[in-house]
Input
Amino acid sequence: MPLVNDVHSRLNPIEVESIARPNSADDVAGCVRDCIGRGESLAVSGHRHAMGGQQFASGRTLLDMRALSNVVDFDVDRGLLTIGAGADWRRIVVATRSQDASGGPAWAIRQKQTGADELTLGGSVACNAHGRGLAMGPIVEDVESMSLVDGRGELRRCSRDENRELFELAIGGYGLFGVIVDITLRLVPRRKLRRIVRVLDLEDAYAAVERHELDGALYGDFQYAIEPSDDSFLRRGVLACYETVDDSCSVGGDGAGLSRDAWLELLSMAHTAKRRAFETYTRHYLSTHGRIYWSDSMQLSTYVPSYAEFLGATRGAEAVDESLVITELFVPPARVLELMVAARAILRRSRVEDIYGTIRSIRRDSTTFLPWARDDFACVILNLRTEHSPAGVERTRAVARDLIDAAADLGGSFYLTYHRWATRAQLLRCYPRLPVFLARKRALDPNGVFASDWHRHVATLLERDATTLRSGA
Ligand SMILES: Cc1cc2nc3c(=O)[nH]c(=O)nc-3n(C[C@H](O)[C@H](O)[C@H](O)COP(=O)(O)OP(=O)(O)OC[C@H]3O[C@@H](n4cnc5c(N)ncnc54)[C@H](O)[C@@H]3O)c2cc1C
Output
């Protein structure tokens, strides 16, 4: 049986029955109907970056969607791009630029995830991803409509006006309501942006961001210091904001990030010399202050999935199998300082290392059925260094749970995509609609064709509630 795993944490080795790689909507519908006919189930995967087993189901068929990545339609007048759900962000950006020569409007994606580009649009929509927009909700805001093969094997178009319930459930629905075949993204005019970089304490960052927003900043984030013994730990940071500028300004570079080698070196330093890593990062960012970028290529990023091998190679005999597990917490903006105080204490006490992390903002999502952005939130992202041993994983799991409690105590929540370590109480507290979400899944997928290890885990945890909600009420 093929063995698969997630790309980033590599903590989800799972044997699947077989891997199907559909090339068309008909192929997808055929796979789903075949599974229904055999009384089997399947999981859907994109580029396999989710870390809680959302994209795999042990012993079941895996539908690898990456071949479905072609442009289906580009309405250049309205800025609507329809593209296969298996397309990744570089492909999508290329597609949005494909009509530039025609003299029509220059379109761009509005947002994408910040840490990596090799993420499929289907995977991004299925977790309802977000980028570094300052006044944006998650990606659901950018989805005009999508085609999806449902639990009966039927291809259906979903939007705010058509099959609305499926639209609201499938976005942020982790592949449990159907296989998304293609998505129509609402694009925005491509803009030139000036990067403004400041080094400051988090206490001052919000006022600074507000000022930059008034000056026309559309994007921004705050990358914080990571040396636990310093006063600056999780407090001082590099604020980068992106303000709109006149089209006559000259763009200073294509990408906005570090080169692959510089990124690897910095990441390695963040493991061994955290203070120096932050200083180096700060120097790099300050050197780009004032530079002009395109609003789409500014969002592309450097990511090396094999960085763990690189780190292992640099350490020789001292190398241990390890990776980074991301945790993302949400709190009302006014409570973010309290969250960072709590996070500081939790990390110092546990000695679990945060290798890098940022703070961003998100606006409330009032569309999806299971929203993580239940309100306007500050988003705190941590990359927790995790040794691949039972004790190492347990240490990070305990920290992740403490961090979730800290966020929940402040009226916040956490992101489901990064692990499945939340307790039953935490899931119910942060996602009160989860039992009904699971009940809708049973009602809309009566054959139970869509499966994942994450779904099995969550459904089992909530079983008591699930029994009473079986009717789909
Ligand atoms: C380094 C890194 C940086 C990240 N940065 C961010 C960030 O800045 N912002 C953010 O919001 N998230 C971020 N993420 C999380 C990431 O956006 C999600 O995990 C996303 O789902 C991964 O996309 P993927 O193509 O790898 O999907 P996979 O991991 O393969 O699948 C994820 C989920 O999507 C479902 N799915 C995939 N394709 C389809 C489809 N065609 N139809 C239906 N369901 C489907 C799967 O069943 C699964 O439930 C980051 C993750 C990593 C590892």
The two ends are 38 Å apart (CA to CA). The chain has a mean pLDDT of 94. The first strand starts at residue 3 and ends at 4.
